[in-house]
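Subject: two folds for Thursday's group meeting

Dear M.,

Sorry for the delay on this. The cluster queue was jammed most of the week, so I only got both jobs back this morning. I'm pasting them in the order they finished. Each block is the input sequence followed by the predicted structure tokens. Could you check whether the formatting survives your parser before we put anything on slides? The first protein is the one we discussed after the seminar.
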Amino acid sequence: MKRVLVVDDDRASCDLLREIFVSQDWQVETAVTPDEALQKAHANKFDLVVSDVNLEAEKSGLDLLLAVEDRIHFSMLLSPSVIGVEGLIDCPQDDM
């Protein structure tokens, strides 16, 4: 089963993305801070990390992804002010 780490300082966004990924048979972990995400990324192997760009913290989503890029297969930044849920694109599981 593919594993994804979803990072967003908005718990509702994390929960929504969890539902979407679980419906596609992904195992999902969530984090609401970059530090929590870094701990999970260093303790576990993820195929994908999806992060909000503008986290309410010292580190941005980009900082987070750069810090874990050697531990993940693929990453994606989301900017909720630019795209909504309808902006999410299905990623064929065969490509992962």
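Second protein, same layout:
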Amino acid sequence: MKLLPVYNRKFLILHKEFEMFVKTMGYNRGKRCLYPDCVNEFMFFLENRGIKNICNVTATEIIAYQLYLSERPNQIHGGGLSDSYIKTHLFSLRLFFDYLLAYDHYRLNTTLIH
């Protein structure tokens, strides 16, 4: 789902910066060029859940997103998404949150860590 509309200005800026990060880190070849598209779909998902700030994303949203992916139909071949494609989405989120942490766009809530 490459062309899902994202309207949140902050999300759009983060997406553009993440796209540059992926290119800079050399992740922009082959299926790796999907990473920004996967993050775009995640942002679309967040907007539809009413989340407007990336700092409000918790494990609950990540788990819900994984469930959404496991139930989402494959728009090209029919059926569901393959395990490999879901793993690509989840790895994209890992890269995205690594980027957010590295560039101080996201702070861990250390009160939740025991």
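Two things I noticed about the second structure. Residues 66 and 90 are 8 Å apart (CA to CA). The chain has four helices and no strands.

Cheers,
T.
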